[in-house]
């Protein structure tokens, strides 16, 4: 039996490398989605994936590398053209060639990148987000809000250390009109992958503060970003962030430091300006317009009041001229009315007096016999009482031979009431006896 040839792993990998070099000599343009993208020591390492359009399930994967010498040229070119960095989830069109290394395995080596393909995909995603916002009916909600006339309490969403935030606050404080603004910072991440969630969290904090009766109410929200690269603007083109800003109950002003393109956040906001200082200038201009309106009203009032005062003075003069004849007529009418009332009062008083006198006479005629009967009744009752009182007089008992014994002024009814040594008084018909109890 012939023994089969056995290769070492290195020999087998070398055979694979030679075969690939012979069969895949050309460079190829490939379309794929980045599932991972990272830099290390100046090189860029990518993980490419292709997903099924219906289920989004990966159906192909591969690793790709862009060496430092090539990456130093491709990176700024891509970012300058697209306005953002390569990151996971981005669709790209890369020019690659196959490379197999005995120790590190297979990978595609990137030699070129087509930013226009990515721009097209970004535009498609942006249009899809815009279409969905319009379908939900919230794309223009912010435009329907009215910026308050006295827009002075401002909630600011920005990075705490951003130079743009400092410029914004300084410009508001140093405005030439001496207008006063009160700002409060709600810190947020303004670049990188955390932009969306960070800004949404800041909006939630503002909403909670706005709903609280303890804190003062904000008039508007300003989202500013200054000093960052335009490559970091992809975080402002997300559906969730656009929905939160579009439906926020306060006017949202954006000044995120770019002028070439308008991101979705700019589209759904109430007002979009270029930079943080432009946002400050917008608020100052708005307050200045309010101030001008107030000053114009003051001038109109100053002109109107003297004219109105003169008009009212003439009106009062005409009224004062009409007062004497009107008063004379009124006085005559009132005097005639008073005379009529006095005559009616006198007549009614006389009739009332006559009726009352007649009533008194009637009462008096009835009162005399009634009084006599009452007096007779009471006189008879008194006679009866007098007879009864005489019948009960104790002196009658004394005349009949009885006596009355008193102890301390009280009638003594029982021997038990007296004690030895007590002095008792005995009343008789013809005198009084005093005795001592033994």
List the helices and strands and how they pair.
Layout: H1 9-23, E1 28-40, E2 43-51, E3 58-66, H2 68-82, E4 91-101, E5 105-113, H3 115-135, E6 153-158, H4 163-173, E7 182-187, H5 195-211, E8 220-224, H6 239-246, E9 252-255, H7 264-268, E10 271-272, H8 276-391, H9 394-399, E11 404-407, E12 410-411, E13 423-428, E14 431-436
Parallel strand pairs: 3-5, 6-7, 6-8, 8-9, 9-10
Antiparallel strand pairs: 1-2, 1-4, 2-3, 4-5, 11-12, 11-13, 13-14
Summarize the structure.
This protein has helices at 9-23, 68-82, 115-135, 163-173, 195-211, 239-246, 264-268, 276-391, 394-399, and strands at residues 28-40, 43-51, 58-66, 91-101, 105-113, 153-158, 182-187, 220-224, 252-255, 271-272, 404-407, 410-411, 423-428, 431-436. It is an alpha/beta fold and 438 residues long. Among the domains are: 9-118, OB fold (Dihydrolipoamide Acetyltransferase, E2P) (Beta Barrel), CATH 2.40.50; 136-290, Rossmann fold (3-Layer(aba) Sandwich), CATH 3.40.50; 396-436, no CATH class.
């Amino acid at each position: 039996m012939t023994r089969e040839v056995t290769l070492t792993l290195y020999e087998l990998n070398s055979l694979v490398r030679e075969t690939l070099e012979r069969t895949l000599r050309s460079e190829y343009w490939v379309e794929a989605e980045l599932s991972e993208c990272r830099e290390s020591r100046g090189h860029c390492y990518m993980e490419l994936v292709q997903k099924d359009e219906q289920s989004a399930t990966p159906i192909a994967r591969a690793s790709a590398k862009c060496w430092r010498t090539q990456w130093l040229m491709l990176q700024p070119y891509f970012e300058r053209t697209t306005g953002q960095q390569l990151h996971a989830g981005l669709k790209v069109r890369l020019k690659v060639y196959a490379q197999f290394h005995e120790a590190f395995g297979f990978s595609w080596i990137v030699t070129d990148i087509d930013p226009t393909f990515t721009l097209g995909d970004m535009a498609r995603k942006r249009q899809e987000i815009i279409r969905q916002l319009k379908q939900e009916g919230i794309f223009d909600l912010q435009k329907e809000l009215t910026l308050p006339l006295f827009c002075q309490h401002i909630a600011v969403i920005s990075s705490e250390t951003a130079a743009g935030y400092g410029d914004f606050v300084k410009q508001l404080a140093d405005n030439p009109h001496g207008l006063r603004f009160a700002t409060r910072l709600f810190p947020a991440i303004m670049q990188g992958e955390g932009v969306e969630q960070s800004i949404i969290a800041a909006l939630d904090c503002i909403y909670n503060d706005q709903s609280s009766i303890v804190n003062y109410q904000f008039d508007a929200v300003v989202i500013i970003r200054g000093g960052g690269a335009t490559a970091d603007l992809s975080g402002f083109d997300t559906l969730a962030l656009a929905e939160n800003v579009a439906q926020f109950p306060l006017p949202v002003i954006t000044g995120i430091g770019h002028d070439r393109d308008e991101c979705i956040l700019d589209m759904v906001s109430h007002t979009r300006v270029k930079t943080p200082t432009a946002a400050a200038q917008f608020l100052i201009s708005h307050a200045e317009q309010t101030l001008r309106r107030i000053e114009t009203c003051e001038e109109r009032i100053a002109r109107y009041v003297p004219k109105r005062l003169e008009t009212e003075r003439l009106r009062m003069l005409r009224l004062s001229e009409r007062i004497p004849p009107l008063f004379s007529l009124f006085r005559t009418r009132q005097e005639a009315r008073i005379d009529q009332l006095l005559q009616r009062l006198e007549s009614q008083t006389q009739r009332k007096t006559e009726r009352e006198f007649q009533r008194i006479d009637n009462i008096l005629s009835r009162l005399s016999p009634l009084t006599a009967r009452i007096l007779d009744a009471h006189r008879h009752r008194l006679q009866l009482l007098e007879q009864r009182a005489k019948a009960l007089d104790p002196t009658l008992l004394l005349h009949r031979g009885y006596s009355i014994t008193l102890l301390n002024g009280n009638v003594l009814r029982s021997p038990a009431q007296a004690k030895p040594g007590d002095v008792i008084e005995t009343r008789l018909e013809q005198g009084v006896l005093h005795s001592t109890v033994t």
